[in-house]
Amino acid sequence: MENLKSEPKTNFSGEAQWHQMYLLTEQLYSDLQFYKDDLSFLYHLVDNYFMGLTHYGNLDEMRGIAKELTDESSTCDELQNKSALHLKQLAELIDAPHKYDSNQIRSEHDKLQNEVISFVNKLRKNKIEVFAITEKVIKKEIQKRLTA
């Protein structure tokens, strides 16, 4: 995902060869699979500490985070499906350059990249929240055990 930020400030999608766009889209798809695994880990973390997380007065906050994670998981699935379709279209364009409208494919590529960037930024924000709340609960548990 860092590739997107460090892309040259040129019109990459407008100038790139189809195979370059294909490779970038493959990387997006792979990154999305990693983020899907990341979401599974966050679900597991919230699930394991849910009682403690809600016990310390974080119930509303945890409901919000659980909903966000569910929404992000759905978004990740959608983006993976869009990436797979885009990969298929790019592969067909490599074989038959005039099969699709090139401007439309390039526009879809830009849109897909922007959607993935937005998804990743939201995921990072929520990861920070989950880790902060979990850390708070773990510290309270440690203090509770030390004083018992």
Overall description:
With 148 residues, the chain is mainly alpha-helical. It has helices at 2-5, 12-15, 18-95, 102-147. It is rod-shaped, with a radius of gyration of 20 Å. The mean pLDDT is 84.
Outline:
With 148 residues, the chain is mainly α. It contains four helices and no strands. The model has no long low-confidence stretch (mean pLDDT 84).
Annotate the secondary structure layout.
Layout lengths: L1 H4 L6 H4 L2 H78 L6 H46 L1
> Can you tell me the overall shape?
rod-shaped
Low-confidence stretches: none
β-sheet strand percentage: under 5%
How does the helix and strand content classify structurally? mainly alpha
Level of helix content?
A: over 70%
Average the pLDDT over all residues and give the rounded result: 84
Number of strands: 0
What integer value in Å does the Rg equal? 20 Å
How far the N terminus sits from the C terminus, by CA atoms, comes to: 46 Å
From the structure above, extract its key features.
148 residues; mainly alpha; 4 helices; rod-shaped
